């Protein structure tokens, strides 16, 4: 019986050729600046004990209260597919004692994350992030460097139509002072039950409410930025100074609320102009209480998560990715078995030298093989037959201009 056609689950992002090349390019652009700054890879499980996220990310967040993929495994344990990366990194840092070595511990990661959100353009149930965490020091220069690393990634892709929003959520003292006034303010509003209980868990969440009536009501709410302690004010001032030094433009957005509860101090978001509702291409900040909350020492940390899917959409919207840059350097068409052996040799040697080389397999006639070469978009094509084998030279055809040149096989590398 013929089976029916199966489809990917609703709302997941997946990348198949030719677009997967662009995805790979974007992801590499986002990872590379972290590597250049001395961050090291941390590769973690995509599922963790559910408790890690309820404790780490916070019960007032949509991520924990509505969007987690949680299930019982065969041993009756509650497991959750990771909705974000920071809690897992912190768990691993504590478990492996990385906080006992050189500080800050500097880690990067890249992979799939899972949130059961309502799917729409740029919002998926499985999506990809490149992230990093710097754990152990609260030097404001690290905040600026972390932001600069994210910015360098977006610039490497070629993006220009985005802005950086920053604010500070201050220290415990700042937040406590603000909370008193904010709670008082919220008590004066006429809110439904669900909103009130959300506000009870974390009153800052109301700044994030998309409903017009709540937005209007919150327009006059006291802002945390006006309640920063002297120390937090000084820290934020330093961060801004270093960003200025680095020539990184930012907008201070005192109403920014991140979707996760662990943030303290500097927080930031990169927002792209052309992406509509899902415009956040990356975000992050400091999380001073997280390590302790998860059973570790009381150390500060800062990091970011960059949305690879959204950065790719942004790159496509800006038209900055050229398919040109992903094509092979050379396409070899061998005619006959001896030529095939030669082609395999040539391809290996050129690949060792870093060239992308494809071979036409399957003993097709020249015409069909030329068609494949053309379709592949390769920059150059050579045909190897008996004549080329005996002369040791090939005609290298530039597929853009159509111009051919005769080149010795052993110096082919110079012609590409
Ligand atoms: P986040 O802001 O929740 O932060 O996610 C970071 C980025 O992931 C977002 O800016 C967005 O580009 C992308 N993203 C989030 N959800 C989706 C989705 N459903 N579909 C597509 N893209 C999405 C974090 O996850 C924090 N762990 C970042 C961090 C690291 N903070 C400190 N260290």
Q: What does this molecule look like?
A:
The protein is an alpha+beta fold and 416 residues long. Helix content is 37%, strand content 21%. The chain is built from 14 helices and 16 strands. It has an eight-stranded mixed β-sheet, sandwiched between helices. It has a five-stranded mixed β-sheet with strand order 13-12-14-15-16, sandwiched between helices. The protein has a three-stranded antiparallel β-sheet with strand order 2-4-3. The model has no long low-confidence stretch (mean pLDDT 95). The structure holds histidyl-adenosine monophosphate. Residues 84-86, 115, 117, 122-124, 127, 129, 131, 133, 259-260, 280-285, 303-305, 307, 309-310 line the site of histidyl-adenosine monophosphate.
Query: What structural category characterises the helix and strand content?
Result: alpha+beta
| DSSP strand count | 16
Distance between the termini: 51 Å
- Strand % is 15-25%
Give the overall shape.
elongated
Named once each, the bound ligands are: histidyl-adenosine monophosphate
Helix content: 25-40%
How many separate helices? 14
Largest sheet: 8 strands, mixed
Q: Whole-number radius of gyration?
A: 27 Å
Oligomer: single chain
* SSE run: HEEHHEEHEEHEHHHHEEEHEHEHEHEHEE
Uncertain runs are none
Instruction: Report strand order across the widest sheet.
Output: 1-5-6-11-10-9-7-8
Itemize the secondary structure elements and their pairings.
Blueprint: H1 19-36, E1 40-41, E2 47-49, H2 50-56, H3 62-65, E3 70-72, E4 78-81, H4 86-95, E5 105-114, E6 126-135, H5 140-157, E7 162-168, H6 172-187, H7 193-201, H8 212-218, H9 230-245, E8 251-252, E9 264-272, E10 280-286, H10 290-293, E11 301-307, H11 308-318, E12 330-334, H12 337-352, E13 357-359, H13 366-376, E14 380-384, H14 386-391, E15 393-398, E16 404-408
Parallel strand pairs: 1-5, 7-8, 12-13, 12-14
Antiparallel strand pairs: 2-4, 3-4, 5-6, 6-11, 7-9, 9-10, 10-11, 14-15, 15-16
Helix pairs in contact: 1-5, 1-11, 5-9
The chain binds histidyl-adenosine monophosphate.
């Amino acid at each position: 019986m013929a089976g029916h056609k199966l489809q990917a689950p609703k709302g997941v992002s997946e990348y198949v050729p030719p677009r997967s090349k662009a995805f790979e390019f974007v992801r590499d652009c986002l990872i590379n600046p972290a590597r250049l700054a001395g961050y090291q890879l941390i590769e973690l499980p995509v599922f963790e004990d559910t408790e890690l996220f309820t404790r780490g990310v916070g019960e007032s967040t949509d991520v924990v209260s509505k969007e987690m993929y949680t299930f019982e495994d065969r041993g009756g344990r509650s497991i959750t597919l990771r909705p974000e990366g920071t809690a897992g990194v912190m768990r691993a840092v504590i478990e492996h004692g990385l906080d006992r070595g050189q500080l800050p511990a500097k880690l990067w990661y890249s992979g799939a994350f899972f949130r059961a959100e309502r799917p729409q353009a740029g919002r998926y149930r499985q999506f990809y992030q490149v992230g990093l965490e710097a754990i152990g020091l609260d030097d404001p220069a690290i905040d600026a460097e972390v932001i600069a690393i994210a910015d360098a990634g977006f610039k490497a892709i070629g993006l220009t139509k985005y802005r950086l929003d920053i604010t500070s959520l201050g220290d415990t003292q700042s937040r406590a002072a603000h909370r008193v006034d904010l709670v008082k303010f919220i008590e004066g509003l006429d809110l439904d039950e669900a909103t009130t209980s959300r506000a009870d868990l974390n009153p800052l969440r109301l700044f994030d409410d998309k409903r017009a009536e709540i937005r209007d009501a919150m327009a006059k709410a006291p802002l945390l930025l006006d309640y920063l302690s002297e120390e937090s004010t000084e820290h934020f001032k330093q961060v801004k100074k270093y960003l200025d030094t680095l020539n990184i433009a930012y907008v201070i957005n005192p109403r920014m609320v991140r979707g996760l509860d662990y943030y303290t101090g500097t927080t930031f978001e990169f927002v792209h102009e052309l992406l509509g509702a899902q415009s956040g291409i990356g975000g992050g900040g400091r999380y001073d209480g997280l390590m302790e909350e998860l059973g570790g020492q009381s150390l500060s940390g800062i990091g970011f998560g960059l949305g690879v899917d959204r950065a790719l959409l942004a790159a496509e919207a800006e038209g900055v990715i050229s398919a040109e840059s992903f094509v092979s350097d050379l396409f070899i068409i061998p005619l006959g078995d001896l030529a095939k052996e030669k082609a395999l040799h040539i391809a290996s040697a050129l690949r060792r030298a870093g060239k992308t080389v494809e071979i036409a397999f399957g003993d097709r006639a020249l015409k069909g093989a030329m068609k494949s070469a053309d379709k592949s978009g390769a920059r150059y094509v050579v045909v190897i037959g008996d004549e080329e084998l005996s002369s040791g030279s090939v005609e290298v055809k530039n597929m853009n201009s159509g111009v051919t040149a005769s080149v010795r096989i052993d110096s082919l590398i110079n012609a590409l």
